[in-house]
Specification:
The structure holds two protein chains of two kinds. By secondary structure, chain A is mainly alpha-helical. Chain A has one domain. In chain A, about 75% of the residues lie in helices and about 0% in strands. Chain A is built from ten helices and no strands. In chain A, helix 3 packs antiparallel against helix 8 and helix 4 packs across helix 7. In chain B, about 65% of the residues lie in helices and about 0% in strands. Chain B is built from ten helices and two strands. Chain B has a two-stranded antiparallel sheet. In chain B, helix 1 runs parallel beside helix 7, helix 3 packs across helix 4 and helix 3 runs parallel beside helix 6. Chain B is globular, with a radius of gyration of 19 Å. The chains are: A mainly alpha, B mainly alpha. At the A-B interface, helix 2, helix 3, helix 4, helix 6 and helix 7 of A face helix 2, helix 4, helix 8 and helix 10 of B.
């Protein structure tokens, strides 16, 4: 139990996927102008991450490793994730229209989100068991959601600010904000290890 | 006639290097740009790996463009790209294990690098094999150069070395280690984009915000989503 908690805390705070591992930067910078859409994107990513791990973990251990075709990991995983996202989108559209309205628009973007493929491959590389993998993915998603939420809040405030030099307006100042947010998350490094070891 | 053709071939090759540099002007592939530029060598290694995949996948997709049905083209492109990424991954593991472990997860993640899928969709699926190969080489060199420069800056400031050779690493001046960590990546990238803005008078970068304007994949992802680009739609 403490193991799972340590994995989750680690991946939410110290090894945050966006702010310290640079995974999923595109949606982090692209869909973070408004808090609402940032939260929607975060929830959708969390959902897909857990689902993708739930499917790719058994594929790795029951199919790829068993038949000695581990080198096909990249191809198999990306295809599985792409079709999974498509399937989820179709299911939501048919059976849960309200949920589709709030999350559906983000789903096509998620197929090419490197954080999803990244978390699936990381779970295998780190040798987590099935339960640990699922919790690690959930943690990664929550970490992503947290980063998105904080960043969107900062950017909404930034909209009103005056006096940004001309060449820094727009993208550069967004990146500087991300840099400062990432700096503040660095303060967590060591904290998680300190608590659990 | 032949002269005109030659210049157009040359412009296909060179436009990716400066005018449409994928990282600093088109602002694509931000994840590998930020993550793998902890040193100049790592940045160049990532750039060259991507270049190889980009050229090979552009050639194959240009060859197959009449065979692939347009409805399932994106999955087909992804399979082609993933195949070449696997080849590069195995080659790096065999011959450059140090680089492979430095780049780690970001080698398989070349698959989801939007520069490669973007060039497949925008260029290789509409142009001849030779043009697509040239486009791949140009874009790949542009990506490699941008990553190399950014890696060099971060390595110089953060470790006091350049290409692994000590510049001021062992002197009294302590390097600012922050630059090879995550915040430094965002910071150096911000400064580079600001510099491009400054020297081009704000004209080079069409995209004023991160989002869908100028995104290469806007047709692809927008086509799947409800009528418009997902990110844009959600912002409303």
């Amino acid at each position: 139990m403490t193991g799972i908690l340590a994995i989750m805390m680690g991946v939410i705070l110290t090894n945050n996927y966006v702010l310290s591992q640079f995974l999923g930067i595109c949606p982090f910078l692209g869909v973070s102008k408004k808090v609402d859409s940032a939260v929607g994107m975060g929830v959708a990513v969390t959902f897909v991450m857990v689902l993708a791990t739930a499917v790719t973990w058994p594929i790795q251990y029951l199919v790829l490793d068993r038949f000695g075709i581990g080198y096909l990991q990249t191809i198999v995983f990306i295809l599985v994730i792409a079709s999974l996202v498509q399937l989820v989108e179709m299911t939501l559209k048919k059976y849960m229209p309200p949920l589709y309205k709030s999350l559906g628009v983000f789903l096509p973007l998620i197929t090419t989100n490197c954080a999803v493929l990244g978390v699936c491959i990381n779970n295998i590389n780190d040798g987590y068991n099935y339960v640990e993998s699922l919790f690690c993915s959930a943690g990664a998603g929550i970490g992503f959601l947290l980063a998105m939420l904080l960043f969107a809040g900062l950017r909404e405030k930034l909209e009103d600010s005056k006096g940004i030099p001309e060449c820094f307006q727009g993208i550069p100042i967004t990146l500087i904000t991300a840099s400062i947010l990432s700096l503040s998350f660095m303060a967590f490094s060591g904290v998680v290890d300190g608590i659990f070891n | 006639m032949s002269n005109e053709k030659k210049t157009s071939k040359l412009s296909i090759l060179t436009k990716g290097i400066i005018k449409e540099n994928p990282v600093l002007v088109l602002l694509l592939g931000t994840c590998p740009t930020l993550a793998t530029t902890t040193s100049a060598i790592n940045g160049l290694g990532m750039g060259i790996s991507t270049l190889v995949v980009l050229v090979c996948s552009n050639i194959v997709i240009a060859l197959l463009k009449n065979i692939i049905p347009s409805k399932v083209r994106i999955p087909c492109y992804i399979v082609v790209i993933a195949g070449f990424v696997t080849i590069v991954q195995l080659l790096l593991k065999a011959y450059l294990p140090a680089l492979d472990s430095a780049l780690g997860l970001f080698i398989p993640l070349i698959v989801v690098n939007c520069i490669i899928l973007g060039r497949a969709e925008m260029f290789a699926s509409k142009n001849s094999v030779v043009d697509s190969a040239l486009d791949g080489v140009g874009m790949g060199i542009g990506f490699t150069l941008a990553l190399g420069v950014m890696g060099l800056i971060r390595e110089f400031l953060g470790a006091g070395t350049a290409f692994g050779i000590a510049i001021y690493a062992n002197t009294a001046v302590a390097p600012a280690g922050l630059f090879i960590l995550a915040p430094g990546g965002f910071f150096v990238f911000a400064l580079l984009v600001a510099a491009v803005n400054y020297f081009s008078g704000g004209k080079a970068i069409k995209k004023k915000e991160f989002g869908c304007e100028g995104c290469m994949l806007v047709d692809t992802c927008g086509g799947v989503a409800a009528g418009g680009c997902a990110g844009k739609e959600a912002d409303k």
